[in-house]
Amino acid sequence: MASNDDELLFQNYEEEVLSTGGAFPTVSKGKWKVLIVDDEEEVHNVTKMALRRFNFDGKAIEFISAYSAREGQTLLIANPDIAVVLLDVVMEEEDSGLQMARFIRNTLQNQLVRIILRTGQPGQAPEHNVVVEYDINDYKEKTELTAQKLHTTLVTTLRSFRDLSIIDINRRSLKQIIDSSASIFQLQSMTKFASGVLSQLVSILHLNPNALYCHASGFAATKKEMGDLCILAATGTYEKMIGSKLQHDAESKVGQDIETTFRQKQSLYFPDRFVIYFCSKQGSENVIYLDGIAALSPWDKDLIEVFCTNVSIAFDNIYLNEEVEDTQKEILFTLGEIAEARSQETGHHVKRVAEIAKLLALCYGLSPEEAENLRLATPIHDVGKLAIPDAILNKAGKLTTEEFALMKKHSPIGYEMLKKSKRSILKTGALIAHEHHERYDGSGYPQGLIGEKIHIYGRIVALADVFDALGSDRVYKKAWPLEDVLRYISDERGSHFDPKLVDIFMDNLTEILLICDKFPD
Q1: Is 358 annotated in the active site?
Q2: Which entry of 33, 142, 358, 385 is annotated as an active-site residue?
Q3: What is the Cα–Cα distance from 37 to 113, expressed in whole angstroms?
């Protein structure tokens, strides 16, 4: 039964509660969650009745009831979005309510939920001490808390919760922008970068996954030629468009929106979609398009603009980094071709060997990153030949013992040329240069390494290099027929070549021959 203080609280509503049998509206979405923690059943009933028509900021109340502090703790854990706790002090223990308040602030670290302490025995919980020590937001004696005052108290409390929640969301959004910016700055691939930008933006705004990120080049004079707009990354219904060019008839509304954006050179916001425009310092114009969204608040738009400012900077960095990497790759292939040209061999030899090596590496189980690193380093496997005299490199006949001894020095010479570099590709190149003439049975040079003592890079390039060399014309021989080359490789399984790699080679012969066709002499 309720105490005398409880009877004073809601005496105007007691009859109505009894007449309705204690029945209240069912819980629905989009309401303020209010947790009532009190060991008196009737306190729950009259509280719900007093606030049955309550509405704040377009939302009614969803009541959750707990009849002990322990039950209240469990419900708070299950409902982290509870806005207000109406908390009694004396329940299973004299200070149960105070213990629960400490649990909320210290254990759950929940600083947002508003705690209204309601007590019928104020002497047991002095207001000043309780408010300060337990971080209580409001303190009411049950005798003073009329229905009207309860209504007013809840309005002010929910307004506080709403405003604090907005501040917290904004704080977390800004933190996510900082974290997201750091993340996308680490992405070096333009495609991965575009995908990262898109996913981070969706995450920041908690949007639906229907989005695309576009990178446009050369739109300065041809803004209406949407065929030049290449889609780098996409999600949701647009995912099928990745890698394609956006045409007028692909998505008419999308095309029109983006065309307007480029013409006006500014972002556009609509009730259900938006198009973000930014131009990098390199002159590349870009758009991010998202639809299936709710109308954005001014704060959301500010968040997007801040994020895209960082994106634009990252875009420039990646563009410049790609330029540097492309230049480095071109230099490596050119250097490899120079070494081959000195021995009057086709420059396409290094390209074929590089591509075959990457294929074997992937099939062997190396990661895509490691396989690509191997592909880029393979062209300089014979860079040491630059130090070998032309008379030896281009001798039509068989080399003498002395000449062959000198020729074999190209491996350690290449290693010495490259080993001091701290760059991953050149370090790999140094290793390959040193070990690609080693043989699985230990009869190779320059170190006589045996089996898996030879690095996998060296074993892979050894097979790819011999296969292509035997099948190509050289100054000292004619190209072997394919069946002879394959017979030699099979015969040398376990002696010259790693047995596992030979098996992989044979299993993937079709793809290897396609590489040879792609880079003919």
Answers
A1: no
A2: 385
A3: 14
